[in-house]
Amino acid sequence: MTARIDHKVPGGKLLRVEVEIESGVVLRALVHGDFFAHPEEGFEAAEAELAGSPVDRLGEAALSLFSRPPLRLFGASPSDIADALREAAARAGAFMALAAGSQEPGEGGRA
Amino acid sequence: MKLRLVDSGLGGALTGALNMATDEALLDSVSRGDSPPVLRFYRWHPPCVTIGYFQSLEAEVDVDACRSRGVDAIRRLTGGGAVFHSEEITYSIVLPLDHPLATDDILESYRLICSGVVRGLGRLGVEASFEPINDVAAGGKKISGNAQTRRKGCLLQHGTVLLGLDPERMFSLLKVPTEKLKGKAIDEVKARVTSLRDLLGREVGYEEAAEALGRGCAEVWGAEFEPRALSPVEEAEAGRLAAERFSSPGWNRKR
């Protein structure tokens, strides 16, 4: 199940995150937005490491991974990103509950 | 300090892909030690929407609208938001990370580099100031957006100075959820962004702006310019990167 959400952060930047989960585990998490991260590859490495995280620990994992030196963020903080990912994971969970309730195979929800 | 000056806009405007590729080719050249630190000015033709490194082209840009209006759409090497490049002058600067303007404190390096833009605008009669993180504002509105990346032991910063502003055209190329929100977004840009035309009530051309910005940078940084166009190696590298990276869906749609 995939959920996409937009999350405004203080200061005006916009995070657009996408979380794909299955059986309580994150398969993929993507963090798009108009922020800056140095080095860019360090951000993408942290993002890739979110895969495999249990859904209920996604926020915690993001907070730790995006705070890892030498990564420096401008325009969005590690906790802004963690909040956005938690929100998306909750949305994906809600879609799954809905799909299970209606007895239809889940095919991905869109915020 | 000595700075190499490349005026790519003298011979006309370049495509977005070639502009972004030239910035990267100069980064590579400075990184290899083949070029001293370099300041470049340029302009764009056709107009181009660039998105920040971490943005999704699909989410931000109406690619079909761009195609039908002859506007390019490409991903930058630098973070930040989507920018419509049309009536503007753009600069880029490449510095090794041990250069005095390339402080380890990223915010401070934005301030130092943007001080050249501020002084250049002053030469045109516009009182401007640096607005952290990465903007220059005049009359309470943004007139210049700037974006920085650090790779291969170098800093690359590029930034725009708006000569004119057409938010209606800009939002006809960007994705906005509804027509109502589009109207709101246009009003917001009008309230928050300005241009030299708006501020001075006259047209400022590329050449006049490049002259003023160059002199402003020289004054405030204590820089001495050595004009030198791209070398054949840099030209070839820029051409290759324009074709292989900045024109490729693999790069432009990579996130």
Please explain how this structure is put together.
The complex is a heterodimer of chains A (111) and B (255). Chain A has 3 helices and 5 strands. Chain A is of the alpha+beta class. In chain A, the strands form 2 sheets. Chain A has a 3-stranded antiparallel beta sheet with strand order 1-2-3, with helices on one face. In chain A, helix 2 runs antiparallel to helix 3 (78-101). The longest helix of chain A has 24 residues, at 78-101. Mean pLDDT of chain A is 90; it is low at 106-111. Chain B has an 8-stranded mixed beta sheet with strand order 7-8-9-10-6-2-1-11, sandwiched between helices. In chain B, helix 1 (16-32) links the parallel strand 1 and strand 2 (38-42). In chain B, helix 1 packs across helix 9 (232-246) and helix 4 packs across helix 8 (206-221). The mean pLDDT of chain B is 97. At the A-B interface, strand 3 and strand 4 of A face strand 9 of B.
Task: Give short descriptive properties of this protein.
heterodimer, A: 111 residues, two-stranded antiparallel ribbon, 5 strands, B: 255 residues, three-stranded mixed beta sheet, 41% helix
Offer a quick outline of the entry.
The complex is a heterodimer of chains A (111) and B (255). Chain A is an alpha+beta fold.
Shape of chain B: globular
Q: Uncertain regions of chain B: pLDDT < 50 for 5+ in a row? A: none
**SSE order of chain A, as H and E?**
EEEEHHEH
Largest sheet, spatial ordering of strands of chain B? 7-8-9-10-6-2-1-11
How many helices of chain A?
3
What's the pLDDT, averaged over the residues of chain A?
90
Structural class determined from secondary elements of chain B: alpha/beta
| Rg calculated over all Cα atoms of chain B | 17 Å
Q: How large is the radius of gyration of chain A?
A: 14 Å
Fraction of residues in β-strands of chain A:
25-35%
User: How far apart are the first and last residues' alpha carbons of chain B, in Å?
Assistant: 39 Å
Low-confidence stretches of chain A: 106-111
The strand line-up of the biggest sheet of chain A is: 1-2-3
Helix residue percentage of chain A = 25-40%
Main beta sheet of chain B: 8 strands, mixed
- Largest sheet properties of chain A: 3 strands, antiparallel
What count of helical segments of chain B does DSSP give? 10
